[in-house]
Amino acid sequence: MADCLFCKIIDGKIPSKKVYEDDRVFVFEDINPQAPTHFLIIPKKHIVGLKEAEAADAEILGYMQLVAAKLGRERNIESGYRTVYNVGPGAGQSVFHIHLHLIGGRPLAWPPG
Ligand code: 5GP
Ligand code: ZN
Predict the structure, then answer these.
(1) From the CB of 86, is ligand 1 less than 6 Å away?
(2) Which of 61, 58, 57, 59 is nearest to 42 (CA)?
(3) 101 flagged as catalytic
(4) Pairing of the two strands 100-104 and 81-84
(5) pLDDT in tens, 41-67
(6) I need a labelling partner for 33 at 20 to 30 A (CA). Which of 45, 102, 103, 105 fits?
């Protein structure tokens, strides 16, 4: 997607602090972190958001959660972290390439805002 911010980050056209990459996903630090650990896990395939995902995307969506769990383990935040999709503008989605937030490293209140 030529005009997509996160596709440009995957392609290296826009710099980011890369955390992890493989053939299916790219993970980088959020530019405006909400916690000591705040990563964005994105598929290399351009998917607009969770409500636009299709049955064929089930595997990549599950894989993104497992990547989050792996990074949570590696970064020693397993005492408590959160994986979050903001779905739609009313929930704060501001970039329309699906991204799983991995947030941890501090106490996280519930319910979220
Ligand atoms: P959303 O609000 O859509 O759930 O999450 C988008 C996230 O992307 C926000 O937390 C925001 O800080 C982050 N973000 C927006 N633009 C950039 C960017 O250019 N680089 C990085 N690393 N993060 C970004
Ligand atoms: Zn994209």
Answers:
(1) yes
(2) 61
(3) no
(4) antiparallel
(5) 999 999 999 999 999 999 999 999 999
(6) 45
Q: What is the pTM of this model?
A: 0.98
Residue with tokens 């405006």: 32
Task: Give the pairing of strands 18-21 and 100-104.
Answer: unpaired
Taking the centre of ligand 1 as the mean of its atom positions, its distance from the CA of residue 54, in whole angstroms, is 23
Cα(108)–Cα(89) distance, rounded to whole angstroms?
Answer: 22
Atom of ligand 1 nearest to the CA of 84: 4
Q: Which tokens hold the place of 112?
A: 């979220």
Q: Which of 38, 97, 99, 101 is catalytic?
A: 99
Q: Cα–Cα distance between 5 and 113 in angstroms, integer?
A: 26
